[in-house]
Specification:
ten-stranded mixed sheet, six-stranded parallel sheet, single chain, 456 residues, Rossmann fold, binds GDP-alpha-D-glucose, globular
Length: 456
């Protein structure tokens, strides 16, 4: 069997991947079983780009991490990846901060990674590149003579041509994608957006359902919706520690229900809109006062990027204003946690919450929606309120789908979720659970790797 070489900006620790998310666990398990390499940046803030790689062997796999300079972290990672591509691909042209030095660094880092990776590759390897930080990597590897099968998976949305062309580098980005054998997206919408660009601007010829010819190159473009380790996550709900148990018991005694949100504090997640919807719910249904709380876990992320400071300040002002207006000495309507919560606590907290509130303004997939479903008690499940603009909505139409910009609709859906009869909750949950179990992280891995392996 071919070796698998995974390339991503950050490398999950193969030794302790169980503590991380499902994706890291799934990839780490596959790598340990089939032999391969996981290659990426070492995460340190003060290296030399192109400096010596660190190699660590774990089981049959090797973890290879390389340093980046402060300047490249600022320009490639915080700059081009997270101040240009992240907002652009999430349809937020207003937040794009384009500077030529960012793109130069992005290209240079990809070239450097390719030079460091190429000598490690064997002819028969399957190379799987992840996410927007590394779009040009295949192009750089091909220039060095690498002929391996190389696939790319984009974890975030891919915008329609009209938005993409607002980037000065759209032609280079799309051209770089065509050097992959397989380009995978989360949804039909994302895959359709690249196909539309190819058709409109590059006169691509469609050879089959998913095969396209552009110039002399052949590329497979398909959707591979990412899943979670659903049974592993469900198992975690049975190990609630004392603190979580006590919190659950307290709410049970007081007859209080909980709405839960779990998101990195990112402007794409629609957090201010969610708080406003909760506030609207309370204004329209004062009978819910003291009987419902909203727990929002929002750990910090990319704080060095200006737009993230702005969203944090906006959120904190909203939480303060709503709590100040509604709270009583024995009830705090919104509990906001701006720290990372241990994964072993998240699963039972989700199970103990009657509503999963997942309303990003735009999201590639959104794993929290799937985790919430996996965590529920099938006999007495909670209700998922999900944004239409999360990739997950394409597969999860038994959730209460909402427009995350429409505060009234979200407030109405929260009320509907809190008052939904048991029979309807069970029926919706059963359908959602079936799909989350069937399309889990393993199914995603197998589907992508099989598409890549069968390319030639
Ligand atoms: C990108 C795409 C796509 C969150 N807070 C804590 C915590 N989390 C965990 C969640 C979940 C993961 O982080 C977040 O995954 P999402 O899918 O929701 O979002 P992104 O981080 O934006 O991920 C996204 C994903 O890639 C995979 O392709 O679905 O669309 O944007 O697992 O539970 N985990 C812990 N503490 C926290 O406080 N332990």
């Amino acid at each position: 069997m071919s070796r698998l070489v995974v390339v991503s900006n950050r490398v999950a620790n193969l030794r302790s991947a169980n503590h991380a998310g499902g994706l890291a666990v799934g990839l780490a398990d596959t790598l340990k079983q089939r032999e391969g390499i996981w290659f990426g940046w070492n995460g340190a803030a003060d290296g030399v780009t192109g400096g010596e790689a660190q190699v660590e062997r774990v089981g049959r796999a090797e973890q290879v991490t390389v340093p980046l300079s402060r300047e490249d972290i600022a320009n490639y990672y915080l700059g081009y990846a997270n101040s240009v591509l992240w907002p652009l691909f999430h349809y937020r042209l207003d937040l794009v901060d384009y500077r030529p030095a960012f793109f130069e660094s992005y290209q240079r880092v990809n070239e450097t990674f390719a030079r460091q990776l190429a000598p490690l590759l064997k002819a028969d390897d399957l190379v799987w590149v992840h996410d927007y930080h590394l779009i040009p990597l295949a192009r750089c590897l091909r220039k060095l003579g690498c002929r391996q099968r190389i696939g790319f998976f984009l974890h975030i949305p891919f915008p329609p041509p009209d938005i993409l062309v607002a980037s000065p580098n759209h032609a280079e980005l799309v051209d770089a994608l065509l050097d992959y054998d397989v380009v995978g997206f989360q949804t039909h919408t994302d895959a359709g957006n690249l196909k539309a660009y190819l058709g409109e601007r590059l006169s691509a010829v469609q050879l089959g359902d998913t095969r396209f010819q552009v110039g002399g190159r052949n590329v497979t473009i398909d959707r591979f919706p990412i899943g979670i380790d659903a049974s592993g996550f469900a198992a975690m709900t049975r190990q609630a520690d004392d603190e979580v148990q006590i919190d659950l018991m307290r709410r049970r005694v007081l007859g209080r229900r909980q709405i839960i949100g779990v998101d990195r504090l990112d402007y794409s997640k629609g957090l201010p809109e969610r708080l406003k919807a909760f506030d609207r719910l309370m204004a329209q249904h004062p009978e819910l006062e003291k009987s419902v709380t909203y727990l929002q876990v929002a750990p910090p992320t990319r704080e060095e990027v200006g737009a993230y400071g702005d969203i944090r300040a906006e959120l904190e002002a909203l939480v303060g204003a709503i709590n100040g207006r509604l709270a009583d000495f024995n009830w705090t309507p919104i509990r906001y946690i701006h720290r990372s919560v241990d994964r072993s606590k998240l699963a039972p907290l989700m199970r103990g919450s009657q509503v999963g509130f997942v309303t990003p303004l735009r999201d590639g997939m959104n794993l929290v929606a799937k985790e919430y479903v996996a965590a529920q008690d099938p006999e007495d499940p909670g209700v998922l309120v999900l944004s239409r603009f999360a990739g997950a909505a394409e597969e999860m139409d038994e959730a209460l789908l909402v427009n995350p910009y429409d505060i009234d609709e979200m407030a109405r859906s929260l009320h509907r979720a809190l008052t939904m009869p048991l029979a309807e909750r069970r029926q919706r949950h059963a359908a959602l659970l079936e799909q989350v179990l069937r399309h889990d992280s393993k199914a995603w891995l197998d589907a992508f790797l099989s598409a890549l392996a069968h390319r030639r």
